[in-house]
Every structure is written in structure tokens, then in C-alpha cells.
Write a structure and sequence with these properties.
The protein has two domains: 65 residues, no CATH class; 54 residues, no CATH class. The chain is built from four helices and eight strands; from the N terminus they run βαααββαβββββ. The strands form two sheets. Strands 4-5-6-7-8 form a five-stranded antiparallel β-sheet, with helices on one face. It starts with 6 loop residues before the first strand and ends with a strand.
Length: 149
């Protein structure tokens, strides 16, 4: 299993055609073959032939954004960067992760003292937090899903 890559997929533009191209390419690369979102064909058609209907592109972008969020591992979201609205990508959901870690810290069953790990069984992940605050999120078999540096 490959580690999920956090970060930008499109920066410096809010032009809907540019965003659509980046979103479609990312969705196509992340979706398992045979399980593509049903609107992907429409998106490719618009990219190839163009459209004058800006609302159609905006609706497609919203739908693809929803699909990309569905493909995110736990505690990651797809959308605009909190500090730059023209930077779209995959970002850690630090608020949700912090809440889950606080809940785990309050429960002795969710803390592995021997390894210093938080075991978030409801989310199906194990989280290690370094003394610098960097997080590594793993599945229950300890395969790294994503990490911050």
C-alpha cells in the first residue's frame, strides 16, 4: 500500500477549466479501475470539447471535490488550503485529529504506553505524534497511510 500524498494538486489559479483538469486528473489517478465516479466521462467531454456553461463546470467541480473527499484516508480532507484559497489539495484535518487524540488521551484503552501510540479503533488507525508535533497515521497493521513532517 502506497502512502497517501498530502499537498497541492493545483496552485495559483481559480480558473475553473484549470481546476477541472487538475481535479479530474487526480480523481482518475486515485480511483481504483472499474469504480470511477459516473460523472468522470462528462468531465472529460467538457475538457475535450469545452463548454460555455460555467455553472456546469462549477457543479462538476463540486461533485469531483466530494468524490475526492470520499477517497481521503482518515483525518485528511480535499479542498482549498486554509491559508490560500487558490491552493487545492489534500490537507490534514488537524482539528478532527486533535479532537480524536484528546479523546484517546482521556482513555487508557486507546493509548499504547509501550510504543507511545494512540489507537483510534473507531477510525481504524494508529497515530504516532513526535515530540515536534508531527503525526504519522497508520492502519491497524501499522502500514503508514500519511504523515506530516
Amino acid at each position: 500500500m502506497a502512502q497517501f500524498q498530502l499537498g497541492s494538486i493545483s496552485t495559483g489559479t481559480l480558473r475553473t477549466e484549470d481546476l477541472l483538469r487538475a481535479f479530474v486528473s487526480t480523481l482518475d489517478s486515485l480511483s481504483p479501475r472499474g469504480s470511477h465516479w459516473s460523472g468522470l466521462g462528462d468531465a472529460y467531454q467538457i475538457l475535450e470539447q469545452g463548454t460555455d456553461d460555467e455553472s456546469e463546470i462549477t457543479e462538476l467541480l463540486s461533485d469531483i471535490e466530494h468524490e475526492l473527499n470520499n477517497l481521503c484516508p482518515p483525518f485528511v480532507y480535499f479542498g482549498a488550503h486554509p491559508g490560500d484559497g487558490a491552493d487545492y489539495g489534500f490537507w490534514p484535518d488537524t482539528e478532527s485529529l486533535g479532537d480524536a487524540l484528546q479523546d484517546a488521551a482521556d482513555s487508557s484503552e486507546a493509548w499504547d504506553w509501550s510504543l507511545g501510540d494512540y489507537i483510534l479503533a473507531d477510525d481504524g488507525v494508529i497515530v504516532q505524534v513526535s515530540d515536534h508535533g508531527n503525526a504519522t497515521v497508520m492502519d491497524m497493521e501499522r502500514n503508514v497511510l500519511w504523515t506530516t513532517t
